[in-house]
Design goal:
By secondary structure, the protein is mainly alpha-helical. The protein has one domain: Four Helix Bundle (Hemerythrin (Met), subunit A) (Up-down Bundle). It is about 85% helix and about 0% strand. Helix 5 runs antiparallel to helix 6. It is elongated.
């Protein structure tokens, strides 16, 4: 047990490993923040609708779950960053300091785009829930509006992937 603890402390005290871990944390934490806030916003409105009409649960679930994808993108971005330095294999490759900073910065597009788009997608989906409550036939229009916000989270993840392609460790 002490050996594992010493190994983990070593990884965090070596800046060349700590910076990529920070980049991965930025991607997953901020993407998760956006998803949690977005889902919470949409779910509050959906719960109000379900109090009046519980049969709409299946239709509203799509709108409530849609902001959750930013957390998935953040997880994927973090996984790709940690995989770049072989941290997941148990035998990490220690990058140079320049590469470590690049790996740290690679998490920012996914994290920030996930955070901001998740919150705003939750707002769009919350109003979509209200619209679907009054006009169930218009629910897919609300999903399309939510998906438009999703585009920017996908672009953030894409930029992270492209940045990682240019970093040789």
């Amino acid at each position: 047990m002490l050996e594992i603890l010493q190994e983990n402390i070593f990884m965090l005290t070596v800046p060349e490993l700590a910076l990529p871990i920070l980049g991965a944390a930025i991607a997953v934490v901020f993407g998760g923040f956006g998803s949690a806030i977005g889902i919470g916003t949409a779910a509050q409105v959906a719960n109000g609708v379900l109090a009046e009409d519980p049969d709409k649960f299946g239709n509203l679930l799509i709108l409530v779950a849609l902001p959750g994808t930013q957390g998935i993108y953040g997880f994927l971005g973090a996984f790709l960053i940690l995989n770049q330095i072989n941290l997941l294999t148990g035998d990490p490759t220690i990058p140079g300091m320049a590469q470590a900073w690049m790996l740290c910065f690679a998490g920012i597009p996914t994290g920030l785009s996930g955070w901001i788009s998740g919150i705003n997608q939750g707002k769009v989906c919350a109003t979509g829930v209200s619209m679907a409550a009054k006009r169930p036939d218009a629910m897919m229009r609300a999903v399309i509006y939510g998906a438009m916000v999703e585009t920017y989270a996908i672009l953030g993840l894409l930029i992270t992937i492209l940045m990682l392609q240019g970093i040789v460790v």
